[in-house]
Design a protein that fits this description.
With 364 residues, this protein is an alpha/beta fold. The chain has twelve helices and 14 strands. Bound molecules: nicotinamide-adenine-dinucleotide. Belongs to the LDH/MDH superfamily. MDH type 2 family.
Length: 364
């Protein structure tokens, strides 16, 4: 009896230890539960941006390193073989996060159950083509794909339009997918935003990650306005305004702006091909920040449906500074706009209003 009593304490301790171990294992297992995969559509996936973009998505650059993904890739019939090749390479890369790949030329199959749609496919402007002719081809592509997305994608699908004219293609998509919340349809100006960060970091010989809060206003075209009036640099000793550190308003108001506006053309000149890796990377940044949020005190540029903020006409897709939280973007309010900026913001808005009426004339 005495022996049993003396055994009681160690047994209770052992029991407690075992129970604690079970609880820790349970919590650990719970924390390690794999997330449900997110389905991402990339249209124009056999093209050069698509080829750079899909491996980035499969590696977690878009949705995070612990988010499994299923990738749907859409292209047109003449690119079907090339698309098959991209699928083979995705399989060969054995990405642990990649839970499935669909490569198709069927727009309905491509759009089924999609949570995020990155619209890269479109009709490029060829030599000798009128603006209206290119617009007309893209309007009919975006009208058809809007309907397919509306019918077959997840109801809260987030859409990023990359293909040019990106702002107006996004507007057409919004018009022809009326049941999608208008906040879910955006276009890519993050590449221009990143180019602006890159130019400032080169000029100051600092890391691009230390520069923040540049703004791209307006159209993803040569009328866009890259604005550094509110941009800062983290000097390690507090934030300092970019204007103060650069100390050269002539450069900031002229060469800097035209360099960012013309960067796409300069890359074509150098590569004999348009930007692809930087465009793919910017598409990942755009969706990443939209879904997972912008860091505190930081904004990014996104082409979104104008609500009239900053005197921009409502009813166009215009690039604004935005912050994102819980999967929703909001336009940063209350920034001071000087006369120089006002004129440039109005000029790019005017171009978008003209593009909108050209697009609408193509629908008739
Ligand atoms: N917003 C930006 O910052 C930005 C930056 C760079 C390029 N772009 C634009 O992105 C687009 C793609 O550029 P790219 O270099 O990959 O071009 P690309 O020509 O290499 O690829 C485009 C792909 O789209 C496909 N396609 C054409 N019509 C389609 C349709 N109806 N459905 C699905 N796919 C279709 C083509 O077959 C091709 O594979 C272009 O419009 C380009 O101007 C935008």
């Amino acid at each position: 009896m005495e022996y049993l009593v003396s055994m009681e304490k160690p047994l209770v301790l052992l029991g407690c230890a075992y129970l604690s171990w079970k609880i820790v294992r349970h919590i650990w297992g719970f924390l390690n539960v794999e997330k449900e995969p997110v389905t991402v559509l990339v249209t124009g996936a056999a093209g050069q941006i698509g080829y750079a973009l899909v491996p980035m998505i499969a590696r977690g650059a878009m949705l995070g390193p612990d988010q499994p993904v299923i990738i749907h890739m859409l292209d047109i019939e003449p690119a079907a073989e090339a698309l098959k090749g991209v699928k083979m390479e995705l399989i060969d890369a054995a990405f642990p996060l990649l839970k499935g790949v669909v490569a198709t030329t069927d727009v309905i199959e491509a759009c089924k159950g999609v949570d995020i749609a990155v619209m890269v496919g479109g009709f490029p402007r060829k030599e000798g083509m009128e603006r209206k002719e290119v617009m007309s081809k893209n309007v009919s592509i975006y009208k058809a794909q809007a309907s397919a997305l509306e019918k077959h994608a997840a109801p809260d699908c987030k859409v990023l339009v990359v293909a040019n004219p990106a702002n107006t293609n996004a507007l057409i998509l919004k018009e022809f997918a009326p049941s999608f919340p208008e906040k879910n349809i955006t276009c890519l100006t993050r590449l221009d935003h990143n180019r602006a960060l890159g130019q400032i970091s080169e000029r100051l010989n600092i890391n691009a990650g230390d520069v923040k809060n540049v703004i791209i206003w307006g159209n993803h075209s040569s009328t866009q306005y890259p604005d550094v009036n509110h941009a800062t640099v983290d000097t390690g000793n507090g934030l300092k305004p970019v204007r103060e550190l650069v100390g050269d308003d002539c450069w900031l108001n002229a060469k800097f702006i035209t360099t960012v506006q013309q960067r796409g053309a300069d890359i074509i000149k150098a590569r004999k091909l348009s930007s692809a890796l930087s465009a793919a990377s910017a598409a990942c940044d755009h969706v990443h920040d939209w879904v997972l949020g912008t860091p505190k005190g930081t904004w990014v540029s996104m082409g979104v449906y104008s609500d009239g903020s900053y005197g921009v006409p409502p009813g166009i897709i215009y690039s604004f500074p935005v912050t994102c939280e819980k999967g929703e973007w909001s336009i940063v309010q209350g920034l001071k706009i000087d006369e120089f900026s006002r004129a440039k913001m109005d000029a790019t808005a005017k171009e978008l209003v003209e593009e909108k009426s050209l697009a609408y004339s193509c629908l008739k």
